[in-house]
Design goal:
Blueprint lengths: L3 E2 L4 E2 L8 E2 L11 H7 L18 E5 L8 H14 L4 E5 L5 H5 L11 H6 L9 E2 L5 E4 L5 H7 L9 H6 L8 E5 L6 H9 L2 E7 L8 H14 L5 E10 L4 H14 L3 E7 L2 H5 L15 H27 L1
Parallel strand pairs: 4-8, 4-9, 5-7, 5-8, 9-10, 10-11
Antiparallel strand pairs: 1-2, 2-3, 6-7
Helix pairs in contact: 2-11
The chain binds adenosine-5'-triphosphate and magnesium ion (MG).
């Protein structure tokens, strides 16, 4: 029988092939897949089972120097959706604004230690990890002092490698590590890209969406050449998609023409629930599981895991 967590309201043990997210306030015990389909009107998606080649400690930086495009919303909600798919996830908040931290229950000023302490070497990264409402989702928060880190680290030896080094001891404890980058290409973003295996780029479907993308791609290229040759592009994610607007469709078409299969099939719609959930310190799946926002991020988690499984199969064949 699947086990039911009353704390999180998630059914979390249906074998390795599937996980389902269910209503938190009204948990039900179910004893078969058919039962779930019958009893849960909000059945969301079947996630791919864990691929035996699925590696631990995959690090993805969520980056775009353009502000307000959906980086933090993606870090928090992709993280929560992967946790619902039975993967252990660590979100690292590298943005001094601290929005990922507050979105996961740690508002500004309420935590003393975070990624700053790990970057400066005062603490290990492990010592700064905080739990969240979801058992498998953890966060390293941003504290106010992170705002000074960009300047303080300038004269420090190996300044670009501080996060990568801090992650060494901890990365294999998680399946996925998502880094929420600030809206700049400064030292905090550079540290994130040097530490990461891949970069996910959220784009807002609006007129200037592609503006600045060239600079971001050049930065990724420079990081590859100088610090992290294995860094690759995870994909481009179309956010705040509004199918009623012609402009949204035009922008989406143009981005797909330009970047082809690098663009995720999943699009994140503009959805009020996604905008509201951070003020409750919750990812959207714990705020309104039936919302389009919840479904789209669960869908994204599924696509993310499927792509990962394809690429690990491919690299196994190539070996
Ligand atoms: N799909 C969406 N539908 C509705 N609102 C959204 C959606 N995605 C993000 N938002 C809201 O838009 C604002 C900007 O989103 P978010 O904070 O994720 O962007 P960001 O790229 O991290 O911004 P910054 O560059 O400032 O860090 C937030 O108020 C967020 O709640
Ligand atoms: Mg942000």
């Amino acid at each position: 029988m699947p086990c039911l967590s009353r704390k999180t309201g998630l059914v979390i043990s249906l074998g390795t092939w599937a996980s389902f997210v269910i209503n938190r306030s009204n948990p039900v015990t179910v004893d078969s897949h058919n039962e779930i389909e019958k009893s849960l009107p909000f059945l969301i998606r079947i996630f791919p089972g864990r691929n035996k080649n699925e590696v631990m400690g995959r690090i993805t930086a969520i980056a775009n120097q353009k502000g307000g495009v959906g980086k933090t919303t993606t870090a928090v909600n992709l993280g929560a959706s992967l946790a619902a798919a039975e993967r252990s996830v660590l979100v690292i908040d590298m943005d001094p604004q601290g929005n990922a931290s507050s979105g996961l229950g740690y508002p500004r000023g309420e935590v003393d230690d975070g990624v700053y302490q790990a970057l400066t070497g005062e603490m290990t990264l492990q010592e700064t990890v905080m739990s969240t409402e979801l058992e498998r989702l953890h966060i390293v928060p941003a504290t106010e002092d992170l705002a000074g880190a960009g300047i303080e680290l300038v004269d420090v030896e190996n300044r670009e490698y501080r996060l990568r080094k801090a992650l060494d001891d901890i990365k294999n404890k998680y399946d996925h590590i998502l880094i929420d980058c600030p809206p700049s290409l400064g030292l905090l973003t550079v540290n994130s890209l040097v530490a990461a295996h891949t970069v996910m780029v959220p784009l807002q479907c609006e007129y200037y969406a592609m503006e600045g993308l060239g600079r971001l791609m050049n930065t990724i290229e420079r990081i590859r050449a100088s610090f992290n040759p294995d860094l690759s592009l995870e994909g481009i994610l179309l956010c705040m998609y509004d199918p009623r607007m012609n402009l949204t469709k035009q922008v989406a078409d143009e981005v797909r023409q330009h970047f082809a299969s690098t663009v995720f099939d999943t699009v994140i719609p503009r959805n009020v629930r996604l905008g509201e959930s951070p003020s409750f310190g919750k990812p959207v799946i714990l705020y309104d599981i039936n919302s389009k926002g919840s479904r789209s991020y669960l869908e994204l988690a599924k696509e993310y895991l499927e792509r990962l499984s394809l690429s690990s199969d491919r690299s196994k064949k190539e070996r």
